[in-house]
Structure formats: structure tokens, C-alpha cells
Amino acid sequence: MEASASHPRFVGVSLKMYFDHEQTLLWCSNVAAIAGMHPAVVSGAVDLVVIPSFPELQAAVSIFDGTRAAVGAQNLSWEDAGAFTGEVSARQLAQVGCTHVEIGHAERRRIFHEDAEMLQAKVAAAVRNHLTPILCVGEPESDGVEAAARLCVDQLDEMTRAVTSSLGGFQAVVAYEPEWAIGAEQPASLEHIRAVCSEIKRWLDEHPQLTGSRVIYGGSAGPGLVTSLGDSVDGVFLGRFAHRPEAVGGVLDEALTVAQGRLAQAQDVTRD
Description:
Blueprint: E1 9-14, H1 21-35, H2 39-42, E2 46-51, H3 57-64, E3 70-73, H4 90-96, E4 100-103, H5 106-112, H6 116-128, E5 132-137, H7 145-167, E6 173-176, H8 190-205, E7 214-217, H9 225-229, E8 235-238, H10 245-271
Parallel strand pairs: 1-2, 1-8, 2-3, 3-4, 4-5, 5-6, 6-7
Helix pairs in contact: 1-3, 1-10, 6-7, 7-8
């Protein structure tokens, strides 16, 4: 899967449950101020997607209104309505202004025992309600590139096979997040990330129903990684390293530089 010069980079930020209500709203306000002026977001060269907790979603949509940043959710129900106490449907998320939703995060798999059947149903719910699924994949232990890539594509196949068969094609964001790197001091090595993401992109190339999908890296991703990885990935998924709004601005700076370099390279090829 070759990177397209017109294909925006992706910078996602999941706040998980680190902030309380007021902290979340303050963070969103500060990041919205950055997004509203940053050339990476204003120009459309970078897609910024912010993912707070459920209680702050509607407020976040309002705060980011007028910027090109989008708001997503950390989870969703596999059903659109019904007697499902405590659940939130994709229909509701779309109605309040969400455009993206995380599915398959390692913490959801491990702590809440979400299995392949449930994840398939969640992907289907997202797609039929016009939400872009952020499909989280990754291996639990550091066991080499080959094992990691095999597990990631197996997880992707499990989550998407039934959906593409019944609902047709859709675009996703595939977030490669090795579990052993989540919460660690450092992300996985550049060589490991490049190799595994290359195999994920190869798998996507073999599945035209997912044409236009992007591959990003998460798992202790932070400032400097976008520059180091370049076109090996289509963006990053930030966690605690984005808790300072200025760090988000720094990553947007990096993403814009990479996007501009990609465009310049494509123009050189066209002239040749």
C-alpha cells in the first residue's frame, strides 16, 4: 500500500479515563485553540481525532466545532437500541456528532473479555451508522515481527470478514498497538513498527473492500515518532504523552512536515 500525497496523515488522541470532567473540558478547549490555527489541521493535511470519555463527548463536539478536528468514542454497543443497560449505541454516537470509534483495544479484550464475535458486531454497528472504526490490533508479548504480523492480520480478519461480506466495503483506521508497549516508557523499536505495519498494509492491499484504510501506530507513541517513522505509517495514536496540549501541537508540527515532504516528493515524480 503506497502512501498517497493527497491522503491526510492521522493523529488520534485517546484520553482513556485519566482526566475528570473539568480537566477534560479544559484540555479540549486548549487543543481546540491549537487545532483552529494549526496549518496541519486547517489545511486538511492532517486529520486530528480526539477521543474523550463518554460524559464529555457532546461537550467536546461543541468545543471543536469550527475547527477541522473530529471527535470519536472509546467504545460502542453492538446493538443500535434496546434493553442494554449501561451501553451506548453507534446511532447515539453519530447523533451527537462523533465520527470515529475505537474497537478492539487491548484493554477491552483483556479486562472486559471482548471476543471476536462481539468485535465483529461492533464493527458492523459502526459501519452501518457511518462511523469510521479505529481497529486496534497487537500482540500480547514481544515475540518477533513474524508472530506479531500474523496475529495482527488474524485479528483484522476476525473483525472485518463478516462485515465486508454483509455490508460491503468501508474505510477503517488500523491502529497497531503491541500490548507490551502500551504504558511502557518507550514504544516498540522503529524496525519492529515498520516491519509489522508493512505486513498489515500488505494484507489491506489484498482486501479491496478496505481500500482507503490507513495504518497508524500506538503504544507509548509520543513526540518524535511521526518524524522517525515517516511514511512507514499513516499517523499515530497518542495516549498519555498527549496530556499536555502543547505536545499535541508538536506532533501536528511533525505530521505537517512529513505530509509536506510526501507532497513535494510526489510532485517531483510527476515532473519526471
